[in-house]
Amino acid sequence: xxxxxxxxxxxxxxxxxxxxxxxxxxxxxxxxxxxxxxxxxxxxxxxxxxxxxxxxxxxxxxxxxxxxxxxxxxxxxxxxxxxxxxxxxxxxxxxxxxxxxxxxxxxxxxxxxxxxxxxxxxxxxxxxxxxxxxxxxxxxxxxxxxxxxxxxxxxxxxxxxxxxxxxxxxxxxxxxxxxxxxxxxxxxxxxxxxxxxxxxxxxxxxxxxxxxxxxxxxxxxxxxxxxxxxxxxxxxxxxxxxxxxxxxxxxxxxxxxxxxxxxxxxxxxxxxxxxxxxxxxxxxxxxxxxxxxxxxxxxxxxxxxxxxxxxxxxxxxxxxxxxxxxxxxxxxxxxxxxxxxxxxxxxxxxxxxxxxxxxxxxxxx
Length: 365
Fold this sequence. Notes:
single chain; 365 residues; mainly beta; Immunoglobulin-like; 3 domains; elongated; Ig-like_fold
């Protein structure tokens, strides 16, 4: 059946016993959508060797395309027995109403159907039964593909992904989607420090997916290059007190230096000291300056009271205001955590060799 149709089927019920019996009919439909099947009459009487006709009405108004199942249960009061009759329903989208079953099967990737997200968790609900997804900073890609005929089923082993992990291939039920549209969801490693783009290739294997008539679809392949958003890290470099002979101004405060390193060159007007926040002493003062002109390295000077000892957290606010030269927003940056104790860093984080696409290696000991 297609969406928004109504059809009826007649079911014959017979009393094979030697005595009259009353019978009742119930419909059992699993799930939330329970209005697509009704049966009349819902009760009756059968003489020995007598028959009765039940009319099953199937309505697909407001029903999504897909497969549905139910049971019509006929119960005999005299025999105290129940007979379940299984019912299966395959609902096709209206786009397939005029599909020529003899036409060649085709698979087409939608060039404008690629959506991506750079985040620690997937932008969609994780597939059921796949609790082993490795959460963390990743590139999540959803690639849309369209089949010319109604698909029976898409198994994960029918799709191959290079430079990523295939998570699931659900049918696309967006408002603007057509019947036969599926979404290939992929998790790819996020490597903005090594390369400026991430390339993902998806291959549907030849003859691995069948339509509802058992005819296979041909193979298809699609590759997409996704620009990486800029990424950042915070490193603690040192702490000292200003005084006579110091390169820092004389002060009664300790000066904590934090290095902010970005994978891409940052637009100068998009980053200020107000983008940083410090969770610690209330009298913290901030100063921010670029290390080298056109370099994605910034130094943040935090002035702490000498008499403050304890944990300090340095945050870079995740408000998408910091952008690279191509107007791509910065990924959320993990905060830097340390403790000030006797003018030293207990949890010291030193800068190690860090490569960015736009700069050479930087080493700070």
